[in-house]
Design goal:
The chain is α+β, with helices and mostly antiparallel strands. 47% of the residues lie in helices and 16% in strands.
């Protein structure tokens, strides 16, 4: 990927934020170096890793707790170096973390194949962890039990130290010597124990002087009777030091011998921690896994017309290219896309959908109206998707895997190179025109700006036409009306605009594809109080055709809003009709079940009566035989009983109801997963398989394993007026997801998030939610459960099952709406 593009799109800021979620330095380093891939297969694998990590962290209590980047110390040991005790302790803790994580993932390998593929490289060195634990304490000290010799030496040291202290203590307590001391203390100088003698008594205590105070008033002396005791103590200390070093060298050699296993294992651990960091970052920005599409090779992607891709025909003042035989395999379908660096609670989401055959999108709108943010959103989400990061967009969003992304955004003035703003932009465009091909995404902000408007507009048209000729997917932001006309009259190009509210004089940041932006200069000036005469004079200077076109554009915008409102009404009516269909079908099913029950009961009674009648007939036969009477009179009765019995035993057919079927499942509909018992929202449909978003997870499930979730009429959602048409089918089931992760939050912030989440979950009609608070000290769990106990939307709650996270998770059942 182009390094300048990555910089101007602020992608490094995303990587820094990602690094904040890493638990140790090796993974943070990987996060900062994370680069988008142009391989479709690799991008899919990276996305799968992130999805598996999100699922794992939401259901299991796993981490790399206690791990360190020990690669340097292990390589030092491999070169024959001796490690310190604390460094060996870091090795031990890291190996314990890798062992625990590997064992956990090994048990779940079938559910998390991509994570397990990384975890296979995690080392489980036999005996090394135990050897270190037998040698080094948790505080990083070599234990007495590390070797018999060390234990013996330390016992001797304690005895020697006690004898030395006892002998010196006499000087402090003996009246004949205590008065000659500056203080009644024992201290050290150069590793020798000494006492502070007042300088005027020098020579009165036979001793060796080791030091004196700055003032010269105190001499630090070692009395001659304790010299041998000091020597013995020091000799034992040196012997202890040598034994400790021998032990550490022996352990270091064991570590060095396993360097070929440990170093790659730490790298694998860093990759797993990076996957966990991606999952945590995705949860923070409320992201979802994008659907990635390969760019198919297509010889007809370039437009051919007698050897040329674009043929110009005169249309009034400007030449307009005629495009023929156009095909494109590029897919960009972003629903509710948000800039990842902006607050998800306040940013206005946009829908960016390129229909088949569209290669370029020309965005117009007011200054500070969101054009640049919209361009950066598309570019950043493409880079994130190809880096294995989930994107802040509605589930079901799709992106092609681009070979490269090029962007020219911002002011590129350079004093050193004597480049103006215009020259800086042109230099960037020259670079990308040399590099870009049909597999690239090109993003151009204010194309042609910074020079004479007429020449800038002409240049912008020519550059866009060249990109279009090359079949390169391009997003352009501009103020030039000529580019609006170009987009309107050129196949393969579509206009888009960011709306502006004339009443509030503020941009709405809503992106509308298919319509160019209006020129609001006169309306704004009039709104701000510019004299009518000045407004009229300005209007007279404008081409009447342009005024009529602007008025027509305004009418189109108004009609579009009216159509949106009608669409809302129709959507609501359709939802109510579907509900009534379901309700009627349920009532008829209930009636049929009651009918079946009555008939079954009647048949049971009939069978009982027949059995009684048969018994009576047999009794009567026996009596007639005893009386030697003919049995012919009973044959007719027996035949009638058999006929009745056949009728009674005839299967009861279930009547099919003559009611319009509820219909197939649709995108955006809430469903229940029969096997898992959880709930989700359909984000994509095939013939017999649906893609379902369940909380932070997305999975593909057979239609036979799904059941439509029952809703009541008062639970039917209300569609917001601001809902854009491309996501209107998803607005009916806006859900915060069935899980809320509060780990890492303070109690105050967690309770605030919990309250907002429960309100959204209740309004969305979720029957239950999972609150992930982790285990830790238990304080956050206590606060969460105390809040749930008194919450009006919570009917009851319980601890999560073992597979859900145990006491690190609380499952709350919500009050029925």
């Amino acid at each position: 990927m182009d390094s300048k593009t990555i910089s101007v799109l602020e992608y490094p800021k995303i990587l820094e934020r990602l690094a904040d979620f890493c638990d140790f330095s090796a993974s943070a380093e990987l996060a900062r170096q994370l680069a988008p891939t142009d391989s479709y297969e690799l991008a899919l694998a990276c996305q799968a890793e992130t999805s598996e990590a999100r699922k794992l962290l939401s259901t299991q209590d796993v981490s790399i707790g206690g791990a360190h980047d020990i690669r340097d110390v292990v390589q030092l040991a491999a070169r024959g170096g001796v490690l310190e005790a604390k460094e060996l302790l870091d090795v031990q803790n890291t190996l314990i973390a890798t062992r625990n994580l590997r064992r956990a993932l090994e048990k779940l390998a079938s559910d998390y194949p991509h994570l397990w593929n990384i975890a296979i490289a995690l080392p489980i060195p036999q005996g090394l962890v135990e050897a270190i634990s037998r040698t080094v304490s948790e505080s990083g000290e070599v234990l007495d039990s590390a070797s018999p010799k060390l234990g013996s030496l330390r016992r001797e040291i304690r005895v020697a130290h006690e004898r030395l202290m006892t002998r010196l203590q006499r000087y402090l307590t003996d009246a004949s010597t205590a008065s000659k001391l500056q203080e009644g203390i024992i201290t050290q100088r150069d590793g020798r124990y000494v006492i502070p003698l007042r300088s005027e008594f020098k020579g009165q205590i036979k001793s060796i002087v080791h030091d004196q105070s700055a003032s010269g008033a105190t001499l630090f002396v070692e009395p001659l009777p304790v010299v041998e005791l000091n020597n013995t103590y020091r000799e034992l200390q040196l012997a202890e030091r040598d034994e400790v070093r021998r032990i550490l060298a022996e352990l270091s050699a064991q570590v060095g011998a396993l360097a070929g296993e440990i170093v790659p294992g730490v790298q694998a651990l860093a990759e797993l921690d990076l996957a966990f960091a991606k999952a945590k970052y995705a949860d923070e920005i409320r992201a979802s896994e994008p659907i990635l599409r390969p760019i198919k090779e297509n010889r007809e992607s370039r437009i051919e017309n007698s050897g040329r891709a674009v043929t110009y025909h005169s249309r009034g003042e400007h030449a307009t290219p005629e495009i023929v035989n156009r095909k494109s395999s590029i897919v960009i379908r972003l629903f509710h896309a948000r800039h990842p660096l902006l607050d998800p609670n306040t940013v206005v989401p946009i829908d960016v959908v390129l229909e088949p055959g569209i290669f370029a999108l020309v965005i117009t709108g007011p200054n500070t109206g969101g054009k640049t943010v919209s361009l950066k959103t598309v570019g950043l989400l493409a880079l994130m998707a190809q880096s294995g990061l989930h994107i802040p967009a509605q589930s079901g969003s799709e992106l092609s895997v681009f070979q490269a992304v090029y962007a020219d955004i911002g002011d590129e003035q350079s004093i050193e190179q004597s480049l103006s703003t215009f020259s800086g932009h042109i230099a960037n465009i020259v670079h990308l025109l040399k590099k870009a091909d049909r597999r690239a995404l090109v993003i151009l902000d204010e194309l042609g700006a910074g020079t004479d408007p007429q020449e800038g507009a002409a240049l912008a048209r020519a550059i866009l036409a060249h990109l279009l000729e090359s079949g390169i997917t391009t997003f352009v932001a501009t103020h030039y009306p000529e580019l609006k006309t170009f987009a309107h009259s050129t196949p393969g190009v579509v206009n888009a605009s960011l709306e502006f509210d004339i009443q509030t004089l503020r941009p709405t940041y809503h992106l509308t594809i298919g319509l160019p932006g209006r020129s609001n200069a006169l309306a704004i000036a009039q709104r701000l109080g510019l004299p009518e005469a000045v407004i009229a004079a300005a209007r007279s200077e404008i081409n009447p055709d342009e005024l009529r076109a602007d008025k027509l554009l305004g009418d189109i915008h108004r009609q579009r809003k009216i159509a949106f409102k009608e669409s809302e009404k129709a959507e609501r009516a359709r939802s109510e009709a579907r509900y009534l269909e379901r309700e009627l079908a349920e009532k008829l099913d209930k009636i049929e079940e009651e009918r079946q029950s009555v008939l079954e009961k009647a048949r049971a009674e009939g069978e009982l009566e027949i059995e009684i009648l048969k018994v009576q007939l047999e009794t009567l036969k026996d009596e007639l035989k005893k009386a030697r009477q003919p049995l012919e009179a009973l044959k007719e009765i027996e035949e009638q009983v058999e006929i009745i019995e056949e009728k009674v035993q005839k299967p009861i057919k279930r009547k099919t109801q003559n009611v319009k079927p509820v219909g197939m499942l649709t995108i955006g509909e809430k469903v229940v997963l029969k096997k898992l018992g959880g709930e989700g929202v359909i984000t994509a449909l095939d013939e017999d398989v649906a893609e379902v978003q369940a909380g932070a997870l997305r999975m593909r499930v057979r239609l036979s394993e799904l059941k439509r979730q029952e809703v009541t009429s008062d639970q039917l959602p209300v569609i917001s007026k601001s809902t854009s048409p491309a996501t209107r089918h998803l607005a009916l089931v806006s859900s915060p997801g069935i899980e809320l992760d509060l780990r890492g939050q303070s109690a105050e912030d967690a309770l605030d998030m919990l309250d907002r989440y429960l309100e959204k979950a209740y309004l969305a009609g979720l029957p239950f939610v999972r609150i992930i608070h982790g285990k830790g000290t238990g304080k956050l769990r206590t606060e969460v459960r105390a809040a749930l106990k008194d919450h009006p939307h919570v009917a009851s709650f319980e601890e999560g099952h073992a597979k859900e996270g145990g006491d690190g998770v609380t499952v709350a059942k919500l009050v029925a709406g």
